[in-house]
Amino acid sequence: LGLSGSSELSPLCSIFYLMSVSVLERTNILKRKFLTLLFVKTKWRLCCVSVSYVERCQQHRWRCAAVTFTCPDGGLCQSWVGAIAEQLAAITSRPRRLLIYINPYGGKRQGGRVYEQKVAPLFAQAAISTHVIVTEHANHARDHLRTDAELKKYDGVVCVGGDGMFSEIVHGLIWRTQMDSSLDPNSPDETLTSCSLRIGIIPAGSTDCICFATVGTNDPVTSALHIIVGDSQPMDVCSIHHNNTFLRYSVSLLGYGFYGDVLTDSERKRWMGPVRYDFSGLKMFLTHHYYEGTVSYLPARGVVGTPRDAARCRSGCVVCQHNGPKPSERAEKYETDDCGETIRGKFLAINAASMSCACPRSPKGLSPAAHLADGTTDLILVRKCSRFDFLRHLLRHTNKEDQFDLNFVEVHRVVRFRFMPRHCQSDSDLELDLLENGKRQIFGQICRDHPACGCAPAYSSWNCDGEILTHTAIDVRVHCRLIKLFARGIEESCDAHPYRGKPKFVF
Ligand SMILES: Nc1ncnc2c1ncn2[C@@H]1O[C@H](COP(=O)(O)OP(=O)(O)OP(=O)(O)O)[C@@H](O)[C@H]1O
């Protein structure tokens, strides 16, 4: 794009303006997908204005592209730079100051390099000021956020690492927000205050499931661009309590039985690297343990959507918008026994998916129709069945068949649930079980009390977003939209998007 010199600034300005608006429309600048003005440089007597913008690539990836305008008139160029910069400054959703935590040991230990080489230059170009903390030990970021961080100075918190690192940020930020609001996080009935700061994830871990589920790809540049353009994706968080004591928050998967056992076993095999998950998965599948207990839950009422829907939670999801927080629902409690449902049984797996839990290994995820911000979690109960049937269920996570369309699997969309393993049940509950299930139970109980006989163990562990919980009897409550991410959810049919690929400028 070249403009010949002229002393008449105003008409030239208009032409330049019209042409640029056309360019910007094509690059989607006017729909806020434009990234940022990068620089103005003088070349001999020509001035260049380079405008950077987001270009969509395949598989939900974003790239930073640039278009350069040249003009012999330096003053005109400067006025253009000023005008565009003014427009950009008016977009208040974009962060200006970020607090960044880098886990140098996450994934392949490339967090520092990924940030320095791929992300920091983009933040610098976008004029975002950063305060970077390289963590020195586990829970460093969480504890810093809880007490020391001067959060008022920042527009967002970014973690460079995997799901464990994200979890640290979530725990630190939620705890701090509740403390600042004088709320008691130990009370499971407390209505928590939503965090005002958004969280960004630069994926540099082993699995990066949260990033994949909210952005659609695990790519540091794409995540950095979502942060720069100031995207915002609200997210539900489950609080987990045991006897009125806070244990953890969960945003993705809470799994007892199969997924708890796989995590416990894989933790002992860290030396194997990422392959440990496959190894432990196979081992636990062959071991085929089942666990007895009681699940009680409050079904989600007055919401649209079910776990069996064909529609998926995507960018601008109407289900999330419809089911958003409603004041009357926020204080839902187990006030009476009859407001919840109760299921006793033997389970191979009890899973609560607060999002699809899609990842590169399971592109559909554990609950494909789960929503990021609808205030519910999908409670999936896999009852005791044969190994062959359980394999059928597991394989359906990777193909197009419905993993819930099996007579030993049930799924409920809930706002709260409790689990009580059988060994923790009161005597009266055990008597009730006995009456319901007959005398076969007596021999089962003897086996459980004397594990040396080689029967199934009495209890498993909860896998809470990749961490093992210390208690098995838990009370889980969904808090609608407790946090916000620098993301926009997975965009629909990205490959067919009109703005994908290189924009073609025709003048
Ligand atoms: N400096 C550090 N030294 C040791 N551990 C750390 C440090 N900083 C953070 N951690 C801990 O490392 C754990 C794993 O980190 P992270 O989640 O970034 O990587 P990952 O486990 O490889 O990835 P993923 O969780 O996606 O599988 C986190 O739970 C975090 O608490």
From TrEMBL:
GO terms for biological process: ceramide metabolic process. It comes from the Eukaryota. One of its GO terms (cellular component) is membrane. Residues 93-244 form the DAGKc domain. It holds the Pfam family PH_CERK. GO terms for molecular function: ceramide kinase activity. PANTHER family: CERAMIDE KINASE, SPHINGOSINE KINASE. This is Ceramide kinase. It comes from Nothobranchius furzeri (Turquoise killifish). The gene is CERK.
